[in-house]
Amino acid sequence: MRCGIYRAYQGRYSGAKEMKIHEFGERNRGNIVMIHGECMPWELFGDAIGILSRRFHIYAVAVPGHDIASDEEFTSVEDVASRIELTLAKHGVPHIDLLYGFSLGGALAMRMLTDGAVPVMHAVIDAGPAPRESNGILDSLFAPSNPLKRGRSSRSAIDKIFPPQKINAASADKIYLLMQRMSGNTTDRIFRSMYCYELPETLSAQGCTIEYWYGSEEADRLKYDIGYVGSRIPGVIMRPLAGMCHGEYVLSFPEQFAGDIGRRML
Q1: Distance (Å, rounded) from C-alpha 231 to C-alpha 191?
Q2: DSSP output for 203-263
Q3: Distances (CA, A) of 231 to 114, 196, 226, 234
Q4: d(CA 248, CA 266)
Q5: Residue 163: which CATH number?
Q6: Tens of pLDDT along 140-178?
Q7: What percent of the chain has pLDDT over 90?
Q8: CA pair distance 32, 19, nearest whole angstrom
């Protein structure tokens, strides 16, 4: 099975490189692929992974450009999505029972659903950004207003997205440390690509239940994304998380989050 799956991927992504995906709960049945957000280490999912891995086989993606021990750069949503697919194939994964992507990870998840290279049974997109209409002029305006660059030099900029009263200081410190060490090329590519990646007019993944989660406290900021997803993904289940901010559910309430995800595996 492993070789057959990999050969199918080799033809499609002959130029793609394998990437880091960490496994937990390998002996368990039912798999969950988790993709973290921009400028945060995958380890911030650690509490949720620890709970989920008691029952399920977890694949935690380490998005390129987010590893302090590596000098690898982020490329684009399209490229990284294809590399995730290729790497899962090399791990012998024939399908994904549940795909969870937060923020940038949500964009990567939507791109994977578009590719359709790995069948997905259930997808949870948590505050994933939708692509904007773009042109050369718009692209040239992105870099000066890139909030990721502000986060590299200002701890207060991070607190605006992850309020101290909502996200513990240790998690925010890890985000700040990573952002300080990320290259300017990576932050530029992340910011441009996560808002300019390609999706079809209608995103439909056969046999997949798709949910879009977002914190009620970030609903205004995500107004465009919520509208885009609601109009472009037939049958999508929209789920506002009452009283939550960006990433608060998975980062600050791992037991409740894991319970919610686990129920979708039944």
Answers
A1: 23
A2: ---TT-EEEEEEEGGGTTTTHHHHHHHHHHSTT-EEEEETT--TTHHHHH-HHHHHHHHHH
A3: 16, 18, 9, 7
A4: 24
A5: 3.40.50.1820
A6: 444 445 555 555 556 777 888 888 899 998 998 899 889
A7: 69
A8: 17
Quote the tokens at residue 31. 């798999």
Q: Could you tell me if 92 and 119 are in contact, meaning their C-beta atoms sit under 8 angstroms apart?
A: no
Segment 239-264, tens digit of pLDDT:
999 999 999 999 999 999 999 999 99
Instruction: Retrieve residue 229's tokens.
Output: 């997803």
* Neighbour tally for 92: CB within 10 Å: 12
Count the domains in the chain: 1
User: Which tokens go with 179?
Assistant: 């952002």
pTM as predicted? 0.89
Selection from 35, 48, 37 nearest residue 253 by Cα: 48
Residue 36 CA, chain-centre distance (Å), reads 5
Q: Which domain holds residue 9?
A: 2-263
**Amino acid (1-letter code) at residue 163:** P
Token reading at 96: 């994904």
SS percent in the chain: helix, strand, coil, step 5: 45, 15, 40
